Amino acid sequence: MLSRLQITNYALIETAEIDFGRGFNTVTGETGAGKSILMGALALITGSRADSSAVGTNGNKCVVEGTFNIADYKLKGFFKEHDLDYADETLVRREINAEGKSRAFINDTPVNLSVLKEMGEKLVDIHSQHQTLSLADKNYQLAVVDAIANTKGLLDEYKAEFSAYKKLKTLLAQLLEKQQKSKADFDYINFQLTELDEAKLQEGEQEKAEQELETLTHAEDIKVNLFKASGLLGDGEQNILTALTEARNAPGNIAKYNTAAAELYERLNSALIELKDVQAETETLAESLSVDPERALQLSSRLDLIYRLQKKHGAQTLTDLLELYNKLQDQIGSDADLDNQISATEKELKQSEEKALR
Predict the structure, then answer these.
(1) In this predicted model, what pLDDT tens digit does every residue of 126-143 receive, in sequence order?
(2) Domains of the chain, each with CATH number or no CATH
(3) I want to staple 299 with a disulfide (CB 3.0 to 4.6 A). Which of 85, 158, 179, 213 is the partner?
């Protein structure tokens, strides 16, 4: 029931506010008093189309608001279907600017014109000469039949079942659309996954391979310098270890006569032991290195593969590639799960349809 109508800057009306009481209300007046303008304003908030001619001269926008008491109209399902906030006292507003652009609101939530019109048809019947809209409306006719047959309980049960059926049907359509997109991407995703799987990437291998290749590439130069260091330390007539041995023995000869000399002997002896160890390790390292072109070629080929995959997938590190591999595996797995969801939803939809048709 319309309980209040407020009009601002519509046609000839600058501002008007009308409160309607319960029961029968009538608006009367002579020709030209503005009755048809009120009807036009009411038509706007029930979904009629409008243009810039609706805007009056008192501003660049016209606004029509209607307050409806809908407690007995059984519209909660409509509000839920269109994601609107339900209230027994509902406010409907229509705004039209000077360019003829229109905006509509139900309880301050924006709605398109088709939703506003659908709701308006449930709230208001506008009868003109030789016209009875409700009687010609199929839904109204069914409502009369249901009222006479006293089938409210069955109707409410069917509405609940039909609503569940529609939700399942929408869900199935979304899943099928997702499946179609997944199938379109499957070959490419599977190709990427296979390529990464065949690469058999291992965490940390890139850094190790780069270090080993660097050593193999400069193996000859490394050996020359290590043998040179080993020679200077312990080989030849004049070498550091021989000189250091003599330097150590000198204070050792007088250690029993002088405490400071004994301390110097111990320190030089420690240095001699350390340098002998360094010389031995240097020689061992030099002898262990070998020039291995075949191994260098293997490492270079492996690193080329890693670099190519990093560039292809925009990865900065080998860890990024491994994370991508896991992500692609999950995506392939989710596609299989999607098939199960579709199968289960189709089964639910069939059961829901059978239940609704019983």
Answers:
(1) 766 555 556 667 777 787
(2) 2-150 (3.40.50.300), 151-239+274-358 (no CATH)
(3) 213
